[in-house]
Design goal:
The protein has 13 helices and 15 strands. By secondary structure, it is of the alpha+beta class. It folds into two domains: 4-301, no CATH class; 309-449, no CATH class. The strands form four sheets. An eight-stranded mixed β-sheet has the order 5-6-9-1-10-11-12-13. Strand 7 (137-143) and strand 8 form a beta hairpin. Helix 2 (172-189) runs antiparallel to helix 3, helix 7 (334-349) runs antiparallel to helix 8 (356-364) and helix 7 (334-349) crosses helix 9 (375-386). The longest helix has 20 residues, at 230-249. The model has no long low-confidence stretch (mean pLDDT 91).
Length: 450
């Protein structure tokens, strides 16, 4: 069989959590509200209604582009993307075509190597980050015994940022890692909750397959629309890759189309033929003047960007001598990272002897409830615990050997590179010793014996 290679690009839509919609004053907080209660003539595309851009949404779009390493052109504009669909009342969407707010970015991802030890780094190029408006939402229901489609325009006009990557991704796992990291950056910036269950972050992979020996991009691509889970995106990509390989092996070029994802069956299904740019008949939006930035405005927006996850991970490893694993877990949620640093400030202020590693262990392994336990209380708990009686090295060694013997699967998992298995074994040691041993010491001894 020929040696095939997937070629994957991603389009990601993120709803911004501004107070009002993109081009009018209606509330953008539409989720869970009665249908068609957050609407006005602009949302509904009524004749004579004129759009006024949401400055905050535009600034947040630019800040996201900066966080993704994009260049910010000093001149941008809005365009009309023309197509007919029931949830698009104007008959066109205000979007951006050839002069978006952000271009030529990149995001570095890390993927576990084949030996489960080394991590492989890869740069995924980002073609553009642009601003547009969301559409209404179709609701399929049964009314008086008849199946009908209803339209809720509450979502119509909500600020929507689209991130488009280059076709640099080669596996479904690379796609999943990229999407998780992008989600992390968006949440850190505070511009969106990026809650996929509510539809505020939607994933759309574009998938093709080619021969590895072919240096050109495939002559087709298939887009899978509106996926709301990282794992679903991975499954959909894998399904499409296998489907394409089967067709190509039979000498058939897959049809260029848009498909949906059916999670219960684990398959994609055809929706419509895939449009090209010319099908949308883009032209400059006549009701909105072009956007011109000064260098000082761009610099001001850049100064508002917080410390991003990669920067925070590197600083935690450098300033606090934490392992990469601990730094990654602590920075997964911005609130957890801030809590950890508040505890460290208290320790330093009071000239305490508690190490950063100990604090990290209490937050990560002991699941300290950071919403209820203050930084001062956590320090008090750690201090009291450390004063308890400990056991001899020989006693601890015997218990560790007993735990390893009783949990061969966890040992095998750890050897296979699954770091969480070590945390499970540490927990078993703590249970056996009734908490009379230092967590770090137990972890080190487990690693040595494994």
């Amino acid at each position: 069989m020929p040696d095939f290679e997937p070629v994957i690009g991603l389009e990601i839509h993120v709803e911004l959590k501004t107070g009002s919609k993109m081009f009018c004053g209606c509330s953008a907080d539409y989720f869970g509200h009665d249908p068609n209660t957050h609407c006005c003539p602009v949302c509904l595309g009524l004749p004579g209604a004129l759009p006024v851009p949401n400055r905050k949404a535009v600034e947040w779009c630019v800040m996201l582009g900066m966080a993704l390493g994009c260049t910010i052109p000093e001149f941008s504009k809005f365009d009309r993307k023309n197509y007919f669909y029931p949830d698009l009342p104007k008959g066109y969407q205000i979007s951006q075509y050839d002069q978006p707010f952000c271009v030529n970015g990149k995001l570095k991802i890390k993927e576990q190597g084949t030996n489960n030890k080394e991590q492989r780094e890869k740069i995924i190029r980002i073609r553009r980050v642009h601003m547009e408006e969301d559409t209404g939402k179709l609701l399929h229901a049964t009314v008086e015994g008849k199946k009908v489609s209803l339209i809720d325009f509450n979502r119509s006009g909500v600020p929507l940022v689209e991130i488009v990557t280059e076709p640099d991704i080669r596996t479904s796992e690379e796609a999943r890692i990229f999407l998780k990291k992008l989600h992390h950056v968006v949440r850190y910036l505070g511009i969106s909750d990026a809650d996929m269950e509510k539809g505020s972050m939607r994933l759309e992979p574009n998938i093709s397959v080619k021969l590895k020996t072919d240096g050109n991009l495939p002559p087709y691509k298939v887009e899978v629309k509106n996926i709301n889970s990282f794992n679903f995106a991975k499954k959909a990509i894998d399904f499409e890759i296998n489907r394409h390989i089967e067709l190509l092996s039979d000498g058939i070029v897959p049809k260029q189309e848009t498909r949906g994802w059916e999670e219960k069956k684990g398959v994609t299904y055809s929706q419509r033929s895939k449009e090209e740019a010319q099908d949308y008949r883009y032209f400059p939006e006549p009701d909105i003047p072009p956007v011109r930035w000064t260098k000082s405005q761009i610099s001001n927006l850049k100064s508002q960007i917080c410390e991003l996850p990669d920067q925070k991970i590197a600083r935690f490893m450098g300033d606090y001598s934490l392992s990469e694993y601990d730094a990654v877990v602590l920075t997964d949620e911005k609130e957890t990272a801030e809590y950890f640093e508040n505890v460290m400030k208290q320790v330093t202020k009071n000239k305490g002897q508690i190490t950063a590693k100990t604090i990290a262990n209490w937050i990560i392994n002991r699941k300290a409830d950071i919403s209820k336990v203050s930084s001062e209380e956590l320090i008090k708990q750690i201090s009291q615990k450390s004063q308890k009686a400990t056991m001899s090295d020989d006693e601890l060694g015997q218990i560790v050997k007993k735990v390893l013997g009783a949990n061969p699967k966890a040992v095998a998992d750890y050897k296979a590179g699954r770091k969480n298995a070590l945390m499970f074994l540490v927990g078993q040691v703590m249970k056996e010793t009734k908490g009379k041993v230092n967590i770090e010491k137990a972890g080190l001894l487990l690693r040595d014996l494994i």
